[in-house]
């Protein structure tokens, strides 16, 4: 029987179960509204390392270790690790997961990578290519600012549309059975380019991609927004959320009642000076591990659509005057 | 029935057929020993664009277009595109494949990405997630030197162990049936780090990873080197080839009779001043499309093990004194 659903989705015959999840974040995220929900909050941004990049590798390593510990599994039992981060050539991931000695697929989907890794991981488990796989993604405020914007020491001003890159990593273990949350379908995103060139307004760059993926998911699965307890984007922030809701209304769907954005959830707008919200691969990953999955696991939310969103730019493409296209990968997660 | 083979391989119940392949290269590659085999040779390195990065995007776009044309298929018929390149945040791929509007998985495995994309593409087709998928990878001498080393204008000297990044892109279309070459199995690589820190001797950085993947492939499939007509690494070059053959001899396998390296094939050592050979995501991809597949398709080679090799470094990790670990993804391709 075909598992192909509509134009760009898969409805799995056999779900991939999320049997373990772990989150580790920095101090600022620990002080935010979700602070008490994370597994580990670092005391300092360097996590004991000499560079921001090594710190981010440590985040990934610790998140994986925590997820393995919770599942009482060993790295040798993981058939694949699907991993990614925001840095050029994925160095946070490579140096982060290297010592686990797990066959690795390196992924890049900007801040949508958590959705990409869960999608490919679920495809592998559902197709019997693996008993267990791990999916891990991360971001770090220090390494991301250095990579994409200015040295931290420069102390540049940030416009109100800007988001704050989350320091954190989320790791997930997928298996054929177990746990109380499972991935029942995916909608893989296309690149959507509205021609926005402002790398400090990533919400606007990514909202059209989120709209495209959510719309396609509703069409492919023949669902209405209310068929989901939550439709959760990765890191659109306040600016992007408004655009997304407007764009989907134009297409005939009102998601305002069920929409939630990890970038809005993770920081307190009034006190944490993070402007439009949080962003980064880590943002959706740690929110999934710390807040979304527990709600699905206990049945408070029966079915959610998790849609991490990514802005596809590099310092080079930005400096060369290219636009910032977006991409968003949808993952349907249900209580079981 | 399980498709899991040994420790890190898959033996597909249903093979993914490579029904179309296309290659496009730069002038230097066109002047090399494989020159007449490529589908398209560019007159100038910029391929009509303003920047090296846009040129590389054009390479990917043209390679995809050629592969689609050969298969008489439309972009809308592709369920997924699995793509990657060497640049930070995969900008060559994002801007290259964007306009095809195909659901996209962005991948990074350094120069092993061609193997990663074929592996994940074959997994998707074999599991009935897609009728057709496209896999495309690229590299460009200009964009890679700028990204990893020095501005071209600086005219730095290159040590004899250095390789020359291939300007080129190879695109492949996978389907459930058709064509005369099929992917029957894969061996997904782990990251292998021998602690080499010389980014101008990538052959030495990658040879241990190639050894690990080839050894594991032979063990997982219970094969001897002679069970393959060719064991083909991506871009070890002359230096890496010697190391690989020595390392595998220590593990009890002599592959010297069947070993071939795309980096050695693509340039003429005597006349093209490319030192240890060619490298880059494009090197293995264009050699697969132009030389390897035609030999498999006509049955001259019944079964080959194609092992693109990647060096996992970034300018940042290198400048911070990190080592250069390697990874290699094995793809078993057979005549049919």
Automatic annotation (TrEMBL), chains A, B:
Q: Which Gene3D superfamilies match?
A: Stage V sporulation protein AD
Tell me, what is one Gene Ontology molecular-function annotation carried by this entry? acyltransferase activity
Question: Known Pfam families for this protein?
Answer: SpoVAD
Q: What NCBIfam families would the database entry show? A: PRK08304.1 (NF006160), spore_V_AD (TIGR02845)
Q: What is this protein called?
A: Stage V sporulation protein AD
Please report the organism this UniProt entry assigns to the protein: Robinsoniella peoriensis
